[in-house]
Amino acid sequence: MEENTQTTTDNIELDINADADIPGNTHLSNPETETDPSFEKLEEELQEQKDKYLRLFAEFDNYKRRTSKENLERIQTAGKDIVSAMLDVMDDCDRAEKQMQQTEDIVQVKQGNQLVFNKLRSVLLQKGLTAMESINADFDVEKHEAITEIEAGEEKKGKVVDEVQKGYYLNGKLIRFAKVVVGK
Predict the structure, then answer these.
(1) CATH superfamily of 128-184
(2) Overall pTM surpassing 0.85 (yes/no)
(3) pLDDT of the chain, 184 residues: tens digit per residue
């Protein structure tokens, strides 16, 4: 009985490893030369997907280049609006300077300068700049920079007593802290 078992086992081993001994062209080392129609269809779909991928990649690359160029242009012309508005004020400053050199009337000079200052404030206000009101307000580290503290009495303790430099908001966003003197 042992002989039969061994012979059966030998036959199985021969069947498993006997690929090279099988006649014909169905060997693993020699695949069929005929192509399956579904294989050709898959190759076409793969080619289409590769083409779509390359087009999408090129389109995205163009998008990145275009937005980068637009951002650079936007940065370069960001101040154009405010500078254009300030040109009128600059013209008024030139006229005021010329008038100061020609006249000795201090009242006229003061009035002219006040008009220029008011126009400057008006243009900046139109562009969204607002001054921070700090005097007599509670000291806030988020808005104020304390330069010094002075004795100001109990009612002024922790409050802004004087403003050395104004703070400003641009369209509601803090762009400069106010430099202040705080009471203690």
Answers:
(1) Head domain of nucleotide exchange factor GrpE (2.30.22.10)
(2) no
(3) 444 444 444 444 445 555 555 555 555 555 555 567 788 899 999 999 999 999 999 999 999 999 999 999 888 888 888 888 889 999 999 998 888 888 888 898 899 899 999 999 999 999 899 999 999 999 999 999 999 999 888 888 889 999 999 999 999 999 999 999 999 8
Which residues pair with residue 181 across a beta bridge? 148, 162
